[in-house]
Design goal:
Blueprint (H helix, E strand, L loop, with lengths): L2 E7 L2 E7 L3 H52 L14 H70 L5 H20 L2 H6 L1
Helix pairs in contact: 1-2, 2-3
């Protein structure tokens, strides 16, 4: 018995019974369940596919930014992130590219300034060497004269000089020789 129903007709009551094979009776329900399962499987596959595409759309730009950051960290300041969207990741990539451009500009300016300062220091060192040579040359002749006149004075009046005068002459001679050494460029490096 598949279905039974009681119907009243006047004072009489009738019982209606429907019999049939269960497979025929449940066939439409089973068919509906198969259709629903197919729809659910298709919907799940579509959701997984869309989820994967959405995740790739989000992760791919982040991976590009990370790869560009590694290249910049390795010294390649010419690398830029390709900006394909106008969402938050596009804004991030654009800001990253601007920071990289500013960094490249700052480094290039710094290298240029270091080069200019090095050239200035080289020129200043050459001028200083020329000045030291000139001072050394200009002081040598008067110091040789002082030392020579002291020798002549000692030869002519050596016996007539008292101990204090000899001491003064020794001080002058030592000072002239010491000043002669100090006027040499090599002595500047030693002292």
């Amino acid at each position: 018995v598949l279905v039974s129903q009681t119907i009243r007709f006047g004072a009489r009551q009738f019982h209606i019974l429907v019999e049939g094979p269960i497979s025929e009776t449940l066939a439409p329900a089973i068919h509906t369940v198969h259709i629903m399962l197919t729809i659910v499987v298709i919907a799940l596959l579509a959701a997984v596919g869309l989820g994967f595409l959405t995740v790739r759309r989000i992760v791919s730009p982040i991976e590009d930014i990370a790869e560009t950051a590694r290249a910049i960290n390795a010294g390649d300041l010419s690398r830029r992130v390709v900006v394909e969207s106008r969402d938050e990741l596009g804004v991030l990539a654009s800001a990253f590219n601007k920071m990289t451009q500013q960094l490249e500009t700052l480094i290039n300016d710094l290298e240029k300034r270091v080069s200019e300062r090095t050239a200035e220091l080289t020129a200043s060192n050459k001028e200083l060497e020329a000045f030291a040579y000139s001072v050394s040359h200009d002081l040598r002749a008067p110091l040789r004269h002082i030392d020579g006149f002291l020798e002549l004075l000692e030869k002519k009046s050596g016996a007539a000089l008292d101990e204090q005068s000899r001491h003064y002459m020794d001080i002058i001679s030592d000072a002239a020789q010491k000043m002669g050494c100090n006027s040499e460029p090599a002595c500047f490096l030693i002292s």
